[in-house]
What we know:
Blueprint: H1 4-16, H2 24-31, H3 35-46, H4 50-68, H5 73-79, H6 85-96, H7 100-103, E1 110-116, E2 119-124, E3 146-148, E4 153-155, E5 166-167, E6 170-171, H8 175-186, H9 193-200, E7 208-209, H10 229-237, E8 240-246, H11 254-266, E9 271-275, E10 282-289, E11 294-298, H12 305-308, E12 311-313, E13 319-321, E14 328-337, H13 344-356, E15 359-361, E16 367-369, H14 371-383, H15 394-428, H16 433-457, H17 463-469, H18 472-502
Antiparallel strand pairs: 1-2, 3-4, 4-10, 5-6, 7-16, 8-14, 9-10, 9-14, 10-11, 11-13, 12-13, 15-16
Amino acid sequence: MDYYVEICSIIVFIEQRVKQKLEFTELEKTLNFSYRHIRGIFKNRTRMSLSHYITTRKIANCALEILSTSKSLTTIAYEYGFESYDTFTRAFKRVTGIRPSEFKKSGLLCGRKILCSGVYAPAILNTGNPNSDPQYITEVGFMNKSLKTQDSCILYGVPKVHYGRRVDDCLEFTPFPMCLQAVLDYMGQNVHYSYLMAASGASFRLRWNVKGWDLSAVDIKNIYENQLTPFELAFKAVGREFKILDKKTCKFQKEDFIDLIKSEIDEGRPVIALGVVGPPEASIITGYRDNCNTLLGWSLFQDNMEFAKDISFDETGYFICNNWWENTEAVMAIGEEITSMTSVKEILENAYYLMTTDTIHTGEGNTYFGSQKAYSAWAEAMSDESNFSDKTQLSQLMEHMMCFGDAAAMVGEGRSYAAGYINWLGETNPEVSRECKKCANSLRAAADCVTEMEKILGGFGGEEVLNNILKRENSDKIVSLIKEAQNHEAKACEELKNIILKHR
């Protein structure tokens, strides 16, 4: 038995009680194993004793408090259950190589690392002590462990992706940057979601099909005329080699996909795919069985009953899919780090292009309005009473409601994270700080309009929301808010232009 789930449970149990005296009888009840057995499986799986792991977690949390609070060392030692300051000092030096009194001046860094799937916690990022023990399970072979046989390989510990994860008071809803961030985390590269949203162009998109209501408008592939561009831009922005096999642009066969998946997984690198489970949105391939006839991984749609009927689940939570080929449009390999990365100016210029280009034509033959024209088309569609009335067919009403929600998500999520990125730029580049602040405020104001829409309707899905949007007074308010967001975005564009001109 692999005991992956049990180890994760132990880690969560400890992290939730890191300041407390641990009652292992409670842990026994949680796992339904004896404490002796728990210690045994933890040592066997992580190559670290449970008692020593607890100490390293306490020290990692203490270290973060030393750097980020004004608490005395004695207070910190007491709060984390050390019997005396001397005991604390000895434990701290054993783990980090230096005394806690020397820590602030040492140049050592603290941050947050993933301990197990979905669990991030304080960690010392560079101990500087060749004789010290690692601070987090990833470094002792737990998270990056792979199970390899002659015809299978599974990577354990790749973070799960799911809609609605909250970051910086905003929810994540765009699959590709979510998947890329998870894969990079697994590979040891910490990249903020707002950076991936900005670099790919997802933060600055708004698309509306010239023919009218179209659920594909929200797809990240429709940001640029070349549908692979957002993926390529994101990989370049994080300084990684990459390879993309796409069915639509080249006539790749199943064998080509299998060769890439196997080679990457065998090297310990998860693969991003479009599709596998559900719509052709980004997902993560974390392993294969039976020479790639079966794939394992994470999909944002694996818990959706409509799409989950043909899959099963591994004990890790990974989906298990046997009929993946027909439902997979592309696979993307994320390779080694390279020295060159996309410049800030390139990201800003791409953003300006997206926010000022009125019309694009994609490789699939679709034409979309962008920027100001997309806002106008969205407002016009919402103003047309025939689109939301008692006489409109229910199927059409649902489609219109979903398209409305997609447009709202592009503006609400996108501009929120765009504002976060622009704010960061202003904080790190004083010469454009004033322009960045004004631009970020306008972007955030556009996003706030979406928040107001949600308040009026009571959300963006469900019967109650549909009933609310059928009320003319509500739809009129929505139209006004779309136009208000449009005006805020126009102001943001002007400031973005100024940032580009002034940025060195």
